[in-house]
Amino acid sequence: MRRAKRTAELKAELKLLTETAMLTRNSLNESAVSYEQDFCPFCGRARNKRKLGDRTFYAQCDCEENRAAVEEWSKLLEREKDLTESVKRLREELERQEAEARKLLEESDLGRRFRDRTFETFREEDFPEAYRTALEYAENFESNEGEGLLFTGTPGTGKTHLAAAIANRVMTEFGEPVRFGGFVDLLEKVKRAFGTDEDVIRQLSEARLLVIDDLGKERRTEWSDSILYQVINRRYENYLPVVITTNEDMGDLERNIGAATLSRLIETCKGVRMEGKDHRKEKLK
């Protein structure tokens, strides 16, 4: 079951159980059963007085009506206990899910700006085909067997927005781990956290989805080129998808990342072209 659907069901169930528990407690409080009255509210007979420490109470009457009321009160009490325990379990499960969601988000390297980039905030009318392709990709991610997306085109058209929307949907809907960022930035962050080159390769190779933003733009080194190829190749071999955004044409991209790496990406990624006005520049007008 999708994480988002399960979370919604848990919240609905928790709300219902909480309300039911409250009604049950009210019924207990309003019950005719009382240990503080000196007479039976049903037959009117006097009750025997009892003391427990410094507390005084009155024994229950054995008339038929009072026995029935006591039995019903006992059932309500058990029901209230069961409901309270169920509410506690549901809250704990929701807290676990929320903690897991926070952990996924923190480990994704998705910056604060891009955590707000969703399909709902994208201007679909600008690039309807790209929008539908990205949305369909995210919605069907559960059955994905290694197919990626390669967003190309001019700057400021929303390529990164759609890539981030996919990453956010994959984490929130499916609870799958994602890595997101410029490749060199990802390398540096992972290397600081884990140390060795093999750890870097493993972390970026094993995430369920890897999103590389602005591929080909960053400075190249022999080390980063080698790591990039190994990461892409391992993901290729293990049917793990990659989503790429780039402003480079295929010729420049090949020169920047190497023919072998680009060949793997072309084989496994569906191309999504986004050519148009730079929306960032439009804000300056």
Features:
285 residues; alpha/beta; Helix Hairpins; Rossmann fold; 2 domains; 5-stranded parallel sheet; two-stranded antiparallel ribbon; 11 helices; 7 strands; elongated
The number of helices is 11
Q: Which stretches are low in confidence, meaning pLDDT under 50 for 5 or more residues running?
A: none
CATH class of the largest domain: Alpha Beta
What does the radius of gyration come to? Answer: 31 Å
Task: Give an account of the 3D structure.
The chain has 285 residues and is an alpha/beta fold. It folds into 2 domains: 3-107, Orthogonal Bundle (Helix Hairpins), CATH 1.10.287; 112-275, Rossmann fold. It is built from 11 helices and 7 strands. The chain has helices at residues 3-30, 64-108, 112-115, 128-139, 159-174, 183-194, 197-206, 222-237, 250-257, 259-268, 279-282; strands at 49-52, 55-58, 148-153, 178-181, 209-212, 242-246, 269-274. Strand 1 (49-52) and strand 2 form a beta hairpin. Helix 1 runs antiparallel to helix 2, helix 7 crosses helix 8 (222-237) and helix 8 runs parallel beside helix 10 (259-268). The radius of gyration is 31 Å and the shape is elongated.
